[in-house]
Amino acid sequence: MPYDEKIVGHALEWQTCGDRMQLDQAKMAGESKSSSDGTALGERVKPSSPSMLYQALPGIHDEMMDVSGAVLPHWQQWFHAFSTWTEDERASHFEKLNQVVRETGIAFDLFADPYEAKQPWSIDLAPLIIAPDEWQWLQTALSQRARLFNAINADLYGPRKLIQEGYLPAELVFSDPSYLRAMHGHKGMFNGLQFFAADLAKGADGTWRVLDNHAETPAGVGFAVANRISLTHCEGNLFRQSNAKRLAPYFQQLQNTLIDRSGLEDPHIAILSPGPEHPDYFSHAYLARYLGYLLVEGGDLVCQNNQVHLKTLAGLKPIDLIVRSIEGAKADPLELNPDGFDGATSMVRAVRSMGVKMINELGTAIVENRAIAPYLPPISQYLLGEDLMLREAPRWWLGDPASVLHVMKNLDQMLITDAHEGSGRPGEVRPAIDGATLTEQDKTALVQKMSLMGKTMVAEQKLDFATTPSWTGQSLEPRPFAVRFFTSRKSQNYEVMPGGLSMSVGGTQAIGLFAPEGLTRDVWIASDTKLAPFESVWPTLDKAGAYSRAGRSLQSRIADNLFWLGRNVERIEWQFRLCRQALSRLDEDSGPEEDQRTVISALNSLILRAPKAPVFDAGFGGMNEIERLVRTILYGKNRTHGFQESVYHMHRLSGLTRDRMSSEAWRILNDFFTDRRWHKEPGFVHSGQVIDLLDKGLMSLAAFSGMAMENMTRNYGWRFLDIGRRVERAENLAGLFSRLVFAPGMATDSTRRMMFILEVADSFITYRSRYRIMPSLPAVIDLLLLDEANPRSIAFQIAALSDHINSLPMEPEMGLRSEENRLILALLSEIQLAEGHLLSHIPQMDESKDIEQVITEKSQLENLLDNQMSKLPQLTEILTRRYFTHTEDKPHRI
C-alpha cells in the first residue's frame, strides 16, 4: 500500500513535542533526590576517607550522589558499609567475587580461549540501587510497555488494523524477515508475549529512555540471576542491610503462570536452546537449572501427530510447554527458514494446532524492530488508550524519504544501524555508523545504501548517559550505564522482575546495549517496607507418596555427552600416566637403549593415531626423542588422541552436562581447564617439572572421578559416563599391551616392557604385593587382562560394561538379546574362558621355531587383544545408533 502521510504526522508530532510523562519522570527523580526523611541513617553520609572519595561528573546525573555531593538515601546503607572496609577487605571481596564468577562459568564461553587474559564477563563490586518511588514508576511504565508490545504483536498477526488505519507503514513490517507469515491468524498470538525485556538508560538529565526491546526470548535473564547469586555470595550482609527485594518470589510466580498456561497439573516444560555455540547458552542452562526445567536443543525433539516429543533413552516423551530461546525463523526448516534447524521439522504445524504451547510464540520478534519506536506514542493511545510513559531517544525510520532528508541534514548528530538485530548476548549489539566520523566518500556510500536498504535501517540522535559508581579495584569511579529489565505475563498484566542486569556502556557507539568491556552489575531494588521471609523458588510436595526416582527420561543427547565426557576424562588420564612414566624412565638414569625403545614405542601408540598431525622438531631446546614425543602429545595441535584436543572436548562436554553433576565436580574440571599451564607450550623445562605438573593433573582427574563415584545417582546418566570410561580404559590398555608385547625385541626385553605396562596401568604395587619376582608375562597377563578384581584390568572393564548394558532401558524384541548385549557377552566370555598360561605362549619368544612359523602363527593373546580392540569400537557404534541418534541399522525404502 502507498505510504500514508498520516504516519509522518503522528511520528513528527509525538517525537518533537514536549512529553508530559517524561517531565513527570524528571520531577519524580528530582523529588527522590531531595528527600532524605524516613531513611535508616537519617542524615546523609558524606565520604570522609580520601581513598574512598567519590566525585560525580559535573553536569551529568549520577545515581548515588546529588549535585551537592551527598549520598542519596537509598544508597546510604551500602555506601556506609562499603566505606568502612579496609583496603585489604575491599581487595579480598573483589578477588572473591572474581573467583565466584570463574567458578560459576559465566566468565568463559564453552568455546572461549582459556589463555585470553581478559574475562569476557565480570561483575562490579558496586551494585546499581534503585529507590522505592522510582521503582514504582518503572514498574508501571515497563508493564505498560509490555502490554503495548503484546497488543501490537496480536494485531500484526491478526486483523492488522495498525497497518490499515495508517499507524504503521506496511513496508516496515513486511520487509522484516522476523515477521513470520506462517503464524498469521494463529489464535495463540493474542497472548503471544509471556516474556518481555527492555534495555533502559538514563540521559545526562536523569530521564529514563529506551535503548532496545526484546520480545523473542527470555533475553538473558539467566545472566541476571547468576549475577545476583554471585554478588550476594560476597555481599550478602550488604544486600540484607539495604533491604533489597529478592528474585525468588518473581520466579515462583513465573513457574505458576507457566503451569497455568500449559493447562496441566504436572506439565513437562522445556527450555529450547540453539546449543552451546550460542552466546546466550550460559543463560539458557542457568535458567533451566534454577527453575528445574529440561534444557533441550532442536536435535532432541521430533514432531509426531502435531505434538512435540523429546527423544529419551526410553523412547519419545511428550513436551507440553516450550520456553523458546531460539530465533523464531529458525524453528522449522519445513515452513520457515530452510537453513534453520534450531527447532524441529513440522514445529509450526504443532504450534498452530495447539499440540504444544510455545512461550513466547513464534514470530514475536517483529515488535523488536527499532523502526517502530517513532510510531509508538499514537499506537499506545490507539490500542491502550494511555499516554506512553517510556520513550526511545529521537529515532527515524530510513524507509521514509522525509526522515532520510532530516537525518542527512543532521548527520553529525546521528547513529545509523539495522532496524532489527535480535536479542543476542547482553552488551554485544553491533556498533552503529557514527555520522560524525564519515568522509565524503562514506556519506555517498551511505546514501546509496539507504536508497536500497532504507526499509531495514534506522537513525537515532546521539545522547549522553548518566553515571553510577563502579569499583575499579582501587577506587569508586562514575561510569555510564544501562539496564536490562525483565517482565513476564501474569494474568492480564505483566510483573516486573525486582532487579535486572546493568552494564557499563561504551559511550554513544551503538543503538542498544553496547558494553565492549563486559562489565556488569547487579540491580538492587530498595524497599521502603520490611520484606517477608522467602524460602525457595521450589514448591513443596503436596501429595503423600508423590515421589520420583525416574531416570528413563534422560535425553539421548545428554547420554551421548556423558558417554564422551567419560571417554575424554579417561583419555587424558591415560595420556598423563603414559607421559609421566616415559619421563620418569628418562629422569632416573637415562636408561639402557632397550628401555628407550620401549618408551618410544609406547608413546608412538598415541602419536601414530594422528599420523598427519605435525610432530615437534627434534632439535628444539636439545630435547631427545622421548621429550619430543611427550611434548607432541601434550601440546601438539589437531591430534585426535592428543591432550589439547581431549581437554577441549572434556571442557565442552562438561559444560553441556553441567546440570547432571555436582557443583564440586564442575569446579574441578573448570579449574583444570582454565589453568593456563595446560594451554601454553612452555619453553625449555626440566623433565621433573613436567612430571610434577602431570601429577597435579592426575590428582584433579582423580578428584573428579571420586565425585562422580560418590555423588552421582546411579541412574542412566551415571551409567553412560562410566561406560565411556570403561570402553576407553579397555581400548588403551589393550592397545599398549599389543604394541609392546608383539614388537620386535620382546624375547630380550620382556621384563622392562612388563614393568612399563604395570606402571602405566597403575598396578605395580598390586603386582609386588602378590609376587616376589620381577614382572613376567604370565603374571602380568593374569593381573591386567584376566583379573576381574583389579579395577585396572581389561576383565574388570568388560564385566562393568556387561553390568551397565544389561541395565539399559532398551528392550530387545521377541525375547532375543539385543545387539550390544550379545557383543559384550561374547567379549566377557572370551576373557573369562581364557587361560593365562596359554595366552603367555608367544611365538616370537619361542627360539625353537623358525622365522616362517613365527610370521604365520598368531598367538591366542594376539587374537584376544585384536578381538577386544575391534569389538569395543563396534560397541560404541551400536550404543550411538540405538541410544543417542535413534537411527536404524538397516535402511528402508520409502
TrEMBL record:
SUPFAM superfamilies: Glutathione synthetase ATP-binding domain-like (SSF56059). Residues 26-47 are annotated as: Disordered. It holds the Pfam family CP_ATPgrasp_2. Residues 554-884 form the DUF403 domain. Residues 127-502 form the Circularly permuted ATP-grasp type domain. Signal peptide: none annotated. It comes from the Bacteria. PANTHER family: BLR2978 PROTEIN, BLR5612 PROTEIN. This is Uncharacterized protein. It comes from Cohaesibacter celericrescens.
